[in-house]
Design a protein that fits this description.
Radius of gyration: 29 Å
Structural class: alpha/beta
Number of strands: 13
Number of helices: 18
Strand content: 5-15%
Strand order of the largest sheet: 3-2-1-4-5
Helix content: 40-55%
Shape: globular
Largest sheet: 5 strands, parallel
Length: 508
């Protein structure tokens, strides 16, 4: 981490003194030497010679920044150890560079009447702005390793940090008698968001690529019941991008049934095994052995080693947004909130569904006639077929779709309709009528069993998962997760992915 901070501090100082003295070329040489030592350790002198050939201070600085960016890219694609600290360092580095770039660009682009008067005052305000912006991100937990590279929490914390920075900076500008600085503040915050959000997304994609190659993963020791351990092993293998790799299992009797992960000991040997083999995470799954007293002893003993403890609360059907840990009477209690998909949220979703369905039907108005003509010319059979489906609360409804098959198999027109997703376009009428949603759980066939608590959707999490072999339990789990974590943003993401899949774009 000292290397990262040294590089970033050098860049920031070089930007400041570039127009005020001869220190910038010297700092540029330091940056190149540091970057070359990471990317090309055997060509340090050659790259320093390249820098010396660049005319002028600005060209030297740009060259140094280029070498520095190459070093950052090399660090994330060739991580040392687990790579978790390296990735966190890259994220911090990108935010610091983004803050510096945005502040410098704002000073160069904004009209003088919107900037603090005087060069020294502008320099001071710019430095304080960048420092305050980065401090707000740190306080919001935007650099916490637990949220980096997965889920939406990383972006939520980034947004909270930017919002807090904007509020505090605006109040500070008024309190210090610099009213013009408010424009500066409200220009910097959105501009940084436009830089940081896509950069974070690209870094996440790069991390996924690395993890798909079985690198940058944390070594996990699972300790608990054999069945629960096998389930956790299966889940981590299906989702390597989360950064876990189960390397060993401990059970009460030292046996894990059919699991192909080695059983390295019993539950009373967990701490000794962590000390010996250096596991980064100890995951406790439900087992009668883990009494409250033994869990407390394990927590105390793991504090002496460099390992984190995670506990499976056996609440797999409750999404994270419903769970909250709060202290009551000195006890850390896990609170489970009620389902979020109720009341006003349900009304908003229904309204948006009907509005979007009406617009889509208007836009696609010529398509049904063309599809009907194609089906008729193909084999002369009926244009649409009707299916009875089970909707919300066990209520049956009619689902109409374009006919794509006969007793002999899928028709030529049917293959085209299925490939482009038009086979189910008549269901937009069902959405407009209120029996279905654009996005929701999978509808049920009569006699299939089960009961839906929400309207079924044209698409959903199970449809965009890319896995045709999902079990009924896995589908139910995805449906519950969707309903309890619903938001308009989630619907937009699911619809966007469904459109891309219909267009033939597959997610890696």
């Amino acid at each position: 981490m000292s290397g990262w901070l040294g590089f970033l501090g050098t860049v920031a100082l070089a930007l400041v003194v570039n127009e005020f003295g001869e220190l910038s070329p010297w700092l540029a040489r330091k940056v190149v030497r540091w970057a070359a030592g990471i990317r090309y350790p055997d060509r340090v002198e050659e790259l320093e010679a390249v820098l010396e050939d660049r005319p002028g201070k600005l060209f030297k600085l740009v060259t140094a920044l280029g070498f520095g960016c190459a070093a950052l890219a090399h660090r994330i694609t060739h991580p040392r150890g687990t790579g978790e600290r390296t990735f966190r360092g890259v994220v911090i580095a990108s935010d610091v560079l983004g803050a510096i770039a945005v502040v410098v660009t704002a000073a160069l682009v904004l009209p003088d009447r919107w900037l603090p008067a005087g060069q020294l005052l502008l320099l001071a305000v710019g430095t304080v702005t960048a420092a305050a912006l980065l401090g707000a991100l740190a306080l919001a937990g935007a650099w916490n390793s637990m949220v980096l590279g997965q889920g939406e929490e990383e972006f939520l914390r980034l947004g909270r940090g930017l919002t807090g920075f904007a509020v505090v900076a605006a109040v500070a500008a008024m309190a210090t008698g610099l009213p013009d600085a408010r424009v500066w503040v409200f220009a910097v915050a959105p501009a940084f968001a436009l830089v940081a959000l896509p950069v974070r997304y690209l870094l996440r994609r790069a991390l996924w690529v690395v993890r798909d190659r079985d690198r940058c993963l944390r070594s996990v020791l699972v300790a608990g019941g054999a069945g629960e351990a096998r389930d956790l092993v299966g889940r981590t293998r299906r989702a390597p991008r989360l950064g876990w790799r189960v390397d060993a299992v401990c059970t009460a009797d030292g046996w894990a049934g059919s699991s192909d992960v080695p059983v390295v000991g019993r539950l009373d040997q967990v701490v000794a095994l962590v000390r010996r083999d250096g596991y980064g995470v100890v995951a406790l799954t439900p087992d009668p052995y883990w009494t409250p007293h033994r869990v407390r002893l394990l927590v105390a003993e793991l504090e002496e080693v460099d390992a984190e403890l995670v506990v499976d609360p056996a609440l797999e059907h409750c999404v994270r947004s419903r769970l909250c840990v709060a202290g009551v009477l000195g006890l850390p209690l896990l609170w489970v909130a009620g389902p979020a998909f109720t009341g006003a949220r349900r009304v908003v979703k229904t309204s948006v569904d009907k509005l979007v369905a009406a617009v889509a039907l208007a836009v696609l108005a010529p398509v049904p006639a063309l599809v009907a003509l194609a089906i008729t010319l193909d084999d002369g059979g009926p244009v649409v077929v009707r299916e009875r489906r089970i909707g919300k609360g066990g209520k049956e409804f009619s689902a109409w779709t374009f006919r794509t098959a006969t007793d002999a198999g899928v028709t030529r027109v049917g293959r085209v309709l299925r490939a482009c997703g038009l086979a189910e376009s008549p269901l937009l009428v069902t959405v407009l009528g209120g029996s279905m949603s654009l996005v929701g759980p999978r509808s049920l066939a009569p006699g299939e069993g089960g009961r839906l608590s929400a309207k079924p959707g044209l698409t959903g999490l199970c449809r965009i998962s890319g896995r045709p072999d999902l079990t009924r339990e896995q589908i139910a789990r995805l449906d519950v997760r969707y309903l309890e974590d619903w938001s308009l943003a989630l619907d937009v993401v699911i619809l966007w992915r469904a459109v891309r899949i219909a267009a033939g774009v597959r997610y890696p």
